[in-house]
Amino acid sequence: MKSKDSKSKLIDDMFEDFLPNIHRAFEVLKDILKRPSAMAGGILLLLILLTSVLFPLVFHINPLDQDLMARFSPPVWQDGGTWKHILGTDNLGRDILSRLLYGSRVSLLVGFSAVLVASVAGIFLGLVSGYYGGKIDHFIMRIADVFMAYPFMLLTISVIAVLGPSIFNLIIVLGISDWVTYARTIRGSVLSIKTKEFVEASRAIGTPDLIIILRHVLPNVISPLIVLATLRVANIIIWESGLSFLGMGTPPPMPTWGRMLSEGREYITDAWWLVTIPGLAIMMTILSINLLGDGLRDALDPRLKNL
Amino acid sequence: MKKQYLSILIGILLCLMMASPGFARDAKTLIVIQESEVVGLDLMRSSLQNTMSVCYNIHDTLFHPQEDASVKPALAEKWEQISDLAWRITLRKGIKFHNGEPVNAQAVKFSFDRIKSPEIKSPHKGKLSAFSEIVVIDDLTFEIKTTNSFAPGLYMLAIYLPIVPPDYIKEVGDTKFNTDPIGCGPYKLEKWIRGDSVILERFEGYYASKPYYEKVVFKTVPEASARVAALITEEADVVSGIPVHKRKSIEESGKAYLTSQMGVMPYIGLNTYEPPFDDVRVRQAINHAIDRELINKALFDGKAIICNGAISPRTFGSAPDLKPYAFDPEKAKALLTEAGHPNGIEVRLAYPTYMSQIQEQAEAIGANLAKAGIKVTLEPFERAVMWERYKGKKHQMYIYWWDDAPEPDRYMYSLFHSESRDYYYKNKSADMLLDLGRTILDRTDRAKVYNKLDHVLYEDCPWAYLYVIPEVFGVSNKVAYKGDRDGFLNMYWAKPKN
Amino acid sequence: MLMLPGDASYQEIEELREQLGFNDPLYVQYARFAIKAVQGDFGESLYYHVPVMELIIERLPASLELAVSAMIFALVLAIPLGILSAVKRGSMLDMGSMFGALLGISMPHFWLGIMMMLFFSIHLGWLPTSGRGTFAHLIMPAVSLGLSLMAMFARLTRSVMLEVLSLDYIRTARAKGLKEQVIIYKHALKNALIPLVTVAGMQFGFLIGGTVIIETVFAWPGLGRLVIQAIFGRDYPLVQGIVFVFSFIFVGINLLVDILYVYLDPQISYSEEK
């Protein structure tokens, strides 16, 4: 077989695999539309995402503007609250709604980017490890063990303590510490798929590894992966807020949910809204992601679908 | 099988819970809550406020330090200055350590040599550097000598030289002494549960009148709200580290009251060795750009004292005629323009994260400076990193603080004398005045020297001066206790109220 | 307050570094560390001036107590809840508890801790705010640490039970006319416990990591709080020691789970296949 032929065949094959996948995606979408909780989660998440991107169009309060004499102004529904600061002000008289909105950008950015970093690394290593097995598998899994053996939280804290806090460092550190979960999941799926008849048959007729992986293995492991990635976004956002809470998140004065929480903690008895509101924001976001993730899992995983 | 595992687990859990102590409250037990953990009980080896507080109940010193930087007798009964370079001190007769060892001149000499020795690595060594040696005259009498005349000498000894038992230390070694100390103070150690509490028991053989409380338990609660709650719910009798905004709730609770102690004096150090702060006009501009009054009103309920210079207004020798730099962004801008920065400057402001209310102070100051065209990037650092960068001259502007001790030499020498540290600022006339302040023994003349020093630094602005925030202890209404400016909790002085 | 700046001079700190060997090349430091570490000697804490191992042994029980309590709390509540939800699938109870579980997973545990502190200690005054001592001290830290685990286990129990209940042998048992309760508790639960135990084992490691923040919030005198203090204070020997111990526990439990996994699920093999 000439190399040119094999290349064009590869492209053909990929294209061939692509169509049914699109078809499948529509199926999944339809499936989700039938599930009210997943729908609710999806809509909520969409709203949160849209708000966090588009709010500057209608909302113009600077999250950094201080009004020291108006500090601890309560939310509008409580005595002493004003429409000027709908959710009240913090310990420096800054508008909490504005900080919440800007903070959502950091949380979501870190959450999604870290998952992207982790999943790309995890998919690659998991595929290689599961498909080829042997020494490579051994090597990658031992590295994974090292990562697993080092407590996730400690790893991120120590690295941030050394590198210094910044959004970029957070994304990289959280992403790198989280690849193992993906790699292990993928590897597990690959291990069980590669013994299946159609894979063995395909290998028997001399199909190149890359094509087997792309054509047979990847499509079959993509479902757990999407579910996993969705749910991990939620976890990462929680961890990011935890790091910010410990003072190791993004540097001030940029508002983040975790920092709002930790700054408000000092005033917990005087101004309940300082800790409660960002906490609720985190919870709403995570809840929406989890609802959607659950729906996705039920839709994508035929095993659970039958239940 | 599974049931077995579960019962084993529950068994382990129960054992663990039994092992942890609960404290019975009774009228003769005093519970003290501090904000950070005790790290050791050898006073010579720690400079942490909360740790030292516990230590002062176990260990005793030659004198009691007073609020005006003078001293009163403690272990020492009388003393006289026999020359510019020496004091002769006589100890009280018959004093014993908790283990029965006598407190004599040899023990004082041993203690002095121990704190000076390199093995101990005492953080207080530097404070006693002016003292050269102790000569034992007889069992109760000794002479302590200095290399130069050292005016604050007795005050320094009163705070930094605990008298420790020579035989016991030689027997058990330094490491054990740090965990199982023997002192001659009013309380002896009953038990130290590391990470949890230090339990002290009244020393029946104390040389002065016995302390009232039979037991004192020092506990740690890092959360400020939780500490205040513990005080109000009467879980605790004495509480340290009370944030400004919590003070009202204590006063209004009817369960406890406040007693003031040391003041925290934050300041912004400026790196005068590098542009833009090598120009005095830029440094003055910074001073004019900070709205101390507003920050005081908003962040400290108006309870802070605005600083009019480097020496705290509460410290001996501070110049009363100096007016704090007025908040005037226009003047600041003019000064910047004059110094060649018509479009303002960009600066970095570093601060240590472990100080209370520091984040909001830094952010408020940053917003102030922005109004005068000074763009600030905030740099929060953990304790150790902050310190490393500090001595590595990596800061441009940095917030640090000192307690506003009654004795000016205690902080001014350390912070401004070029022999001590010249990381960011050096000034020959300041050096000269600081040396003079150490050696002049007459209090009126000494005050004049520090007055002059205050003026010199006011003009030269090596810092942006801020304010002194008086710290308070919260004390239960059942207990009478008055806080000291040194900020330590010596429970010897606590009595039941009425 | 605390360590006042200027309490140790530059000279003294340099001497200290020299003494501790921080000025040696990294590999020399590492070799020295590794040799001593396997003997259980991590040196002396820079802060406490006592051997690191001594500190760890003192603090470990507190952390284990917290983690084990959180685990017990999670399992004891989650299993019945999960079973009930599975059995009464689609009922209000099922939907209610599953939504509750979802909420539980969606809360940062430290936030839950703060909220509980706000409500139960400061507002109601029922529970002590922080510290370790009586059973009352344990409640809030254990619950806030264990709640998300409980939620997770409840969901897992439910889905595993549903799966098991639809299997052939259960149908056979039903056909044989066995009592529903016997079927659920004797046959179904037994099988459902297997994945649960596996996941619980794996999550124990997560728990130990989670103690880091919860111990800080509640001033729980365990290893988690100690390690944060050590990291912030640059107490390197202490950090190394604690990380070593944490990792040791992690690896031990992971190994156990891995072995269990192969043993329980014959579909996965670790032998090389070509």
Keywords:
heterotrimer, A: about 300 residues, mainly alpha, MetI-like fold, 11 helices, elongated, B: about 500 residues, alpha+beta, D-Maltodextrin-Binding Protein, domain 2, Dipeptide-binding Protein, domain 1, 3 domains, twelve-stranded mixed β-sheet, 16 helices, about 35% helix
Can you put this structure into words, describing what you see?
The complex is a heterotrimer of chains A (307), B (498) and C (274). With 307 residues, chain A is mainly α. Chain A has helices spanning 3-33, 36-54, 96-132, 134-149, 152-163, 167-193, 197-204, 209-245, 257-265, 273-300, 302-305. Chain A has a single domain (11-304), classed as MetI-like fold (Orthogonal Bundle), CATH 1.10.3720. Chain A starts with a helix and ends with a helix. Chain B is of the alpha+beta class and 498 residues long. Chain B folds into three domains: 2-52 and 185-255 and 477-496, Periplasmic binding protein-like II (D-Maltodextrin-Binding Protein, domain 2); 63-169, Dipeptide-binding Protein, Domain 1 (Dipeptide-binding Protein, domain 1), CATH 3.90.76; 264-470, Dipeptide-binding Protein, domain 3. In chain B, the strands form four sheets. In chain B, strands 1, 8, 9, 10, 11, 12, 13, 14, 15, 16, 17 and 18 form a twelve-stranded mixed beta sheet that branches. Chain B has a four-stranded antiparallel beta sheet with strand order 4-5-7-6, with helices on one face. In chain B, strands 2-3 form a two-stranded antiparallel sheet. In chain B, strand 6 and strand 7 form a beta hairpin. The N and C termini of chain B lie far apart (63 Å). Chain C is mainly α and 274 residues long. In chain C, helix 3 packs across helix 6 (135-165), helix 5 (109-123) crosses helix 8 and helix 8 (180-218) runs antiparallel to helix 10 (236-264). Chain C is flat, with a radius of gyration of 24 Å. Chains in contact: A-B, A-C, B-C. At the B-C interface, helix 1, helix 6, helix 7, helix 13 and strand 16 of B face helix 1, helix 3, helix 5, helix 8 and helix 9 of C.
